[in-house]
Amino acid sequence: MLIEENKSLKNYNTFGIECFARYFFSVTSIRDLKKVLYSNLHQKQYILGGGSNILLIQDIDALVIHINLKGIKIINEDNNYVDIRIMAGEDWHEFVKYCIKNNYGGIENLSLIPGNIGSAPIQNIGAYGVELKDVFLSCSTISIKTQIEKEFSKEECKFEYRNSIFKNEAKGKFIITSINLKLTKRNHKKNISYGVVKQKLNENNIENPTIKDISETVIAIRQSKLPDPNKIGNCGSFFKNPIIDKSTFKEFNELYPDAPYYKISSLEYKIPAGWLIEKSGFKGKRYGDAGVHKNQALVLVNYGNATGKEIWQLAVTIQKKVKEIFGIDIEPEVNII
Ligand code: FAD
Ligand code: EPU
Asked: Hey, what domains does the chain have and what are their CATH numbers?
């Protein structure tokens, strides 16, 4: 087991922030994972996937366990469905491509989301009308404290919009080692309800899209507005879209009748934080090397050498301004470390 000391994490987070891990171990087997946890090298552990949803504001004084467990296995199959187990260290988008190639439907709308398979349940990744929970069966975990394996069913994961048990009562207690998904082999339940997806398919005269068409459409949309982390450091949406109750929505809608919104239920409405941030005047603004992306105000960027603290300072300034103007709280989606 190669354990590195004082390891730079600059290449392990998509913001490209320079911070150091006291200890760093890239784990490739469950056996080594249990062994390193048992060794108690450091009293604290931090679990790292692709680093595409973390903002490092300081060095990590812990054993950073980089999840590098690989493997894809079909565990059940009939004419209509396939149940697949994917190890936590597999790349999410590479797996989406594998599914498109094999005509397994269900996650085509989640094309091009960066990061690892094992991180997908943490915030119940979602895009263009689909969330992980729509295809999720269960996940396998190991307790950090006892090294005992535990399976979480979909219900036990308590998935919500950008939320799960792993961001709440189970936070920091379990390492997800694999996930099981149920995908379709035919009669795919295609979701083209999201406005811009529908619009793009129409523009390309695609009436009955295949899952490959949907994947390609989503990729084109994402590439047109989200910055590529290999070129400009970022973690996608920095904030969650706020959910407000009916009476707050009524007041908001009267004041800003042009503001976009999604009705979630008879009691709740979701407002795009990107709109709130743009209207607060931050879109495209740059403060040193920290900035707000020019095409998507929800995305904070590192133009080069911003520190995590500088990005966080900008985030706090945005939160305060949005609250001052609209009276709405916006919460980070990114995990602040
Ligand atoms: P990390 O950043 O490495 O970790 C995220 C959190 O999960 C951390 O708290 C970490 O401790 C924990 N964690 C990681 N692995 C494990 C594990 N195996 N067990 C237990 N805990 C673990 N997200 C969306 O939902 N929808 C989008 O459309 C989307 N678009 C994005 C676009 C861009 C350009 C970028 C950069 C990000 C985007 N994201 C999106 C956010 C990000 O891709 C997802 O949150 C992704 O699932 C993070 O995976 P990761 O492996 O990089 O996680
Ligand atoms: N908008 C603006 N200005 C902006 C950005 C957005 O006015 O600068 C408004 C537009 O009206 C637009 C609406 O916001 O129609 C929604 O924008 P978009 O379709 O880009 O989606 P989003 O709400 O900004 C969410 C997710 C994304 C996901 C897309 C597609 C959150 C926090 N973000 O963004 O997820 O890819 O929808 O489903 O829910 C991520 O989590 O990192 C992420 C990128």
From this structure: 4-67 (3.30.43.10), 72-184 (3.30.465.10), 233-336 (3.90.78.10)
